[in-house]
Amino acid sequence: MNKSILIKIVKWICDGYVDALITGIEENENYFPYTIAVIHFIDELQRKNIKIDYKEIFNDSIIDNVLKEANDYLMRWYFEK
After folding, report:
1. DSSP per residue over 31-74, as a string?
2. The dihedral of CA 70, 32, 29, 8: what is its sign?
3. Which end of the chain has fewer CB atoms within 10 angstroms, the N or the C?
4. pTM of the entire predicted model
5. Where does residue 35 rank: exposed (0-12), middle (13-18), buried (19+ CB within 10 A)?
6. pLDDT tens digits, residue range 59-68?
């Protein structure tokens, strides 16, 4: 997995909980299927030197699912502390 893309996506999604989400995604990939798919897609485009604008390339449904994954994980993370 391309960690720099992972960090950019997480910062874009939820600035403020970056470290918790990064660790969560790296250690619990099964909780983040949409997020992982987005990371792999962006990574593949970048490898082919295709420039993209994150906000224009994904529809609201994908963004909503990525946000839901982050929210669900943060709720589990917060209550387990």
Report:
1. G-HHHHHHHHHHHHHHHTT----HHHHS-HHHHHHHHHHHHHHH
2. negative
3. C
4. 0.74
5. buried
6. 889 989 999 9
Q: For residue 77, which of 2, 24, 14 has the smallest C-alpha distance?
A: 24
Query: Which residue reads 């987005």 in tokens?
Result: 38
50: tokens are 């295709």
Task: Note the maximum CA span of the chain.
Answer: 41
**What is the pLDDT of the chain when averaged over all its residues?**
87
* Residue 22 Cα to chain centre, angstroms: 8
pLDDT, tens only, 18-55: 888 889 999 999 999 999 999 999 899 999 999 888 77
- Is the pLDDT score of 15 beyond 70? no
At 8, which amino acid appears? K
